[in-house]
Design a protein that fits this description.
The protein is 74% helix and 0% strand. By secondary structure, the protein is mostly helical.
Length: 120
């Protein structure tokens, strides 16, 4: 039942994001809007509940399958994107660099220092 509540929460934020993006006619994916709303909700709340954590953990195993439709879609848009290779390459490099830097910052921020004992 806990897993079901977690999926319901994820689906609720997704639908809320899709609804807002559609109603406000934003040029952003509804899934992205929902993810931002969920992040803000969790920041205000200050913690992730067990249900959401359990549902999220179970989705990590299927992450490659969740990304696959976007990759396949790019294959069929090859001719339309042919003149945009520089912008695409720049976006990929900048996005990768930013994600690596963010990961390093988060690790440095939340990993225990050598002075702290992890068993304290």
């Amino acid at each position: 039942m806990s897993l079901l509540r977690g999926f319901l929460l994820l689906t609720g934020f997704y639908l809320l994001g899709e609804s807002l993006a559609f109603i406000l006619d934003w040029p952003v994916s509804g899934g992205v809007v929902g993810m931002i709303l969920m992040t803000l909700f969790l920041m205000v709340r200050g913690r992730v509940n067990k249900d959401l954590g359990m549902a999220s953990q179970s989705l990590i195993a299927f992450l490659t399958m969740l990304i696959m439709p976007g990759v396949v879609g790019i294959y069929f848009l090859g001719e339309e994107l042919a003149g945009q290779w520089l912008a695409i390459a720049g976006s990929l490099v900048a996005g990768t660099l930013l994600s690596v830097l963010t990961t390093l910052w988060l690790m440095a921020r939340f990993m225990p220092t050598s002075q702290e004992s992890p068993h304290d």
